[in-house]
Amino acid sequence: WCGACRAELADVPGESARRCPDCDLYVPMQLSAAVLVAITRPGPAGRPDELLLVRHAYGPTGLWALVAGFVDAGETLEAAVRREVGEEVGLTVDGLRYFGSQPWAMSGPGTLLVGFTARSVDAAAGPVVDGKELSEARFFPLDALPAELPPAYSISRWLIDATAPV
Ligand SMILES: [Zn+2]
After folding, report:
1. C-beta pairs of 109-113 under 8 Å, 24+ apart in sequence
2. What is the structure's pLDDT at 165?
3. Distance CA 36, CA 141 (A)
4. How far apart are the CA of 10 and the centre of ligand 1, in A?
5. Is 96 helix (H, G, I), strand (E, B) or coil?
6. Which of 20, 60, 106, 121 sees the fewest Cβ atoms within 10 Å?
């Protein structure tokens, strides 16, 4: 519905937007950005690096996924990564690097997933979960990742595969 005159908005052909037929107000689709991050740390001597994977308390709870979350208004992507990592698993990361992005319609229209890789600053620090959003968080050796990973068409999986080349 039009925010100016309350007429019903119509889709604009060929665009992710709507337009008011009465007053011509142009309403682009709201885009929300979400970040996800593959966090690694050095493994024990002689062993490969380790990758942090988490399990969510809701949704596909058997799946091991990456730390992810929506970007707040006024926040940079990098700040969103650091905030989410701190909130969800209590870790500090550095060496943040952009990996790639993917439009993702599964969590609602207009979501853009932005993937990063990062290193855990304190290699000895264990991830801590609050048990509400996440039920579990663990570092896995890159040569011994669990089988229950995100699907092959998701940027989560591309990030995991790029981190742990098989
Ligand atoms: Zn209008």
Report:
1. 109/29, 110/16, 110/29, 110/30, 110/31, 110/32, 111/31, 111/32, 111/33, 111/34, 112/31, 112/32, 112/33, 112/34, 113/33, 113/34, 113/35, 113/36, 113/68, 113/155
2. 65
3. 19
4. 10
5. strand
6. 106
* Alpha-carbon distance values, 77 to 27, 40, 84 (Å): 24, 19, 11
What structural domains and CATH numbers belong to the chain? 1-30 (no CATH), 31-163 (3.90.79.10)
pLDDT digits (tens, 9 = 90+) for 9-55: 998 888 878 899 999 999 887 788 999 999 999 998 999 999 999 99
Q: How far is the CA of 153 from the centre of ligand 1 (A)?
A: 39
| Long-range residue pairs from 6-15, CB within 8 A, at least 24 positions apart, any chain | none
β partners of residue 69: 35
- The rounded Å distance from CA 27 to ligand 1 centre is 10
